[in-house]
Design goal:
Blueprint lengths: L58 E7 L8 H4 L11 H17 L1 E7 L7 H9 L6 E3 L2 H5 L25 H7 L15 H4 L3 E5 H6 L5 H7 L4 H11 L15 E5 L5 H7 L5 E3 L5 E3 L5 H15 L3 E3 L18 H7 L3 E6 L15 E4 L15 E3 L6 E2 L7 H18 L1 H12 L4 H11 L2 E3 L1 H10 L1 H9 L4 H25 L2
Parallel strand pairs: 1-2, 1-3, 5-8, 5-9, 11-13
Antiparallel strand pairs: 3-12, 4-9, 4-10, 6-7
Helix pairs in contact: 2-13, 14-15, 16-18
Length: about 500
């Protein structure tokens, strides 16, 4: 399912998501893109529907989250921890939005932290004990879902005072992540992760110009920006510059990347989804017999084995660029050093690492597997929706929680999202107008991977392992994985069907 928006303010209001619908059988066709001709959109923002006499007398509203203090993602993932305006654009617009919600409802936000990034049992423990001290938990989507069995969360459809039809809630995404027409979490403008975690393709302009390669921007305009075109450029760029007859981090590579910031962009953006939903809003595996999906993986593996790309599978693979002991920053440091034509990143915030890059770089959408019509939109890809807010069944005042979420989404929609896109994602961290236009296009059509958002380990990890092995065992590996993947889906379906 795709939605295209032409005005900046509406850019995020109707973000696109994965395809829905169809029967519970393998769908081997790509989701077709809609007509790219759009009429000018004129709309008015509805008023926030909270009665004037709603006043909580200074009550504390507590959110528990993974600790992001001091990190670039603090304002996104720990917004209630911000202590003051400090001149940083994102910090200040979020701080002021949160402050307005506090004033409107007469509440005080409190932020507390999980012991570590995987301390997800806290939600379940809190709910089962009846402890009402925590109003919401901010967890990575797929891990939080695993804690929602046995009535441990309140589905968003059961939370009073939330209207998911308001434009500050992302209707397309919420329709796509629902199961059995229920939501254990929902996303709206307050969930900046939906924007910030978009995967981007970066290219070194100096290397591109020296090799006199085709303009990717012209290819995009013509609808000819394909996986094959990308790998033609990758092959042209890779070279052994020190003459030792072996490719190392000291040579020039066509691309450097991690598995999960690269491979799934191609099939997802081309509509070859691993998980789809049937007419009853129930997910099913869409892998067995899906020839376009297997063909895409097999072609990518063949390209990988040509030896023109450096794949960072584990932290420390580059040694020289293992500066932060992180798999995701190694490719960026190697790219910043001019050692690759292309790289990719899973987070717009990571572009900040490249501010001191000597060479100029540009931002591109990932190509599609096949050609499109001229003028087609090349959208962005988000592996999941980040860290949404789960409401435990022990929540002491669901009606208040509904007002809080509604007010937060309204404030973010009217005062945060647009400035974040324009001032942070599109200006602060990019260097040219072409990159800005590419980002705008990508943000106008974001695809969210349903399988990553719920069952990453069971539905996706196995095919990453095939790429790591270097052997074309996609079909046989899936045959082994299928029972586990299908069981994971059935378990989640049972959880959602248990919601009243």
């Amino acid at each position: 399912m795709k939605t295209r928006i032409t005005t900046a303010l509406l850019l995020i209001a109707m973000l696109a998501s994965v395809s829905c619908g169809g029967e519970a059988s393998v769908d081997t066709t790509a989701d077709t893109a809609s007509d790219t001709t759009t009429a000018e959109v004129t709309t008015s923002i509805p008023e926030l529907d909270i009665p004037d006499d709603v006043d909580y007398g200074g009550a504390t509203f507590t959110v528990e989250a993974i600790d992001a203090r001091g990190k670039p993602t603090q304002a996104i993932n720990n917004p209630f921890s911000l202590e003051e305006a400090n001149g940083d654009i994102l910090n200040d617009i979020v701080f002021e939005a949160v402050e307005r919600v506090e004033e409107r409802l007469n509440i005080q936000f409190a932020q507390q932290y999980s012991r570590d990034a995987f301390d997800y049992g806290r939600l379940r423990t809190n709910a089962m004990s009846g402890d009402g001290s925590i109003d919401a938990f901010s967890y990575i989507d797929r891990f939080g879902v695993n804690q929602t069995a046995d009535g441990c969360v309140i589905p968003y459809g059961d939370i009073p005072n939330i209207n998911l039809e308001n434009p500050w809630w992302y209707e397309d995404i919420n329709n796509a992540i629902s199961i059995a027409n229920k939501l254990c979490y929902a996303v709206g403008a307050m969930n900046l992760d939906v924007v910030s975690r978009m995967t981007t393709l970066l290219y070194n302009k100096r290397i591109h110009e020296e090799l006199q390669l085709e303009s990717p921007h012209k290819l995009i305009e013509q609808g000819k920006w394909t996986m094959d075109k990308l790998y033609e450029m990758i092959e042209a760029a890779a070279r052994d510059i020190d003459g030792d007859n072996q490719m190392t981090v000291d040579d020039i590579w066509g691309a450097v990347y991690t598995h999960d910031a690269w491979y799934n962009n191609f099939h997802s953006l081309s509509g070859y989804h691993i998980v789809k939903k049937d007419g009853d809003d129930l997910p099913y595996m869409n892998v067995a017999g899906n020839e376009p999906l297997f063909d895409t993986w097999q072609r990518l593996l063949a390209y990988t084995l040509e030896g023109n790309v450096f794949v960072v599978s584990y932290a420390g693979d580059t040694k020289k660029y293992d500066i932060e002991k992180s798999t995701y920053t190694e490719p960026l440091y190697m790219f910043m050093d001019g050692k690759a034509l292309f790289t990719s990143t899973l987070n717009l915030g990571h572009l900040g690492y490249l501010r001191d890059m000597k060479d100029d770089f540009g931002i591109l959408p990932f190509p599609h597997v096949e050609e499109e019509e001229p003028g087609a939109v090349y959208g962005g890809f988000n592996p999941a929706v980040g860290q949404p807010l789960f409401v435990p069944s022990s929540n002491s005042d669901p009606a208040r929680t509904g007002y809080v979420f509604e007010a937060l989404c309204y404030e973010y929609y009217t005062t945060v999202v647009d400035p974040y896109i324009e001032s942070v994602a599109l200006v602060k961290q990019t260097r040219d107008e072409q990159s800005t236009e590419m980002l705008k296009m990508m943000l106008s059509d974001i695809q969210v991977d349903f399988s990553c958002g719920y069952w990453y380990d069971d539905t996706n990890h196995w095919w990453y392992d095939v790429f790591r092995s270097g052997k074309d065992t996609f079909v046989s590996s899936y045959e082994k994985q299928a029972p586990k993947a299908e069981a994971a889906l059935e378990k989640t379906i049972a959880i959602f069907e248990s919601f009243h």
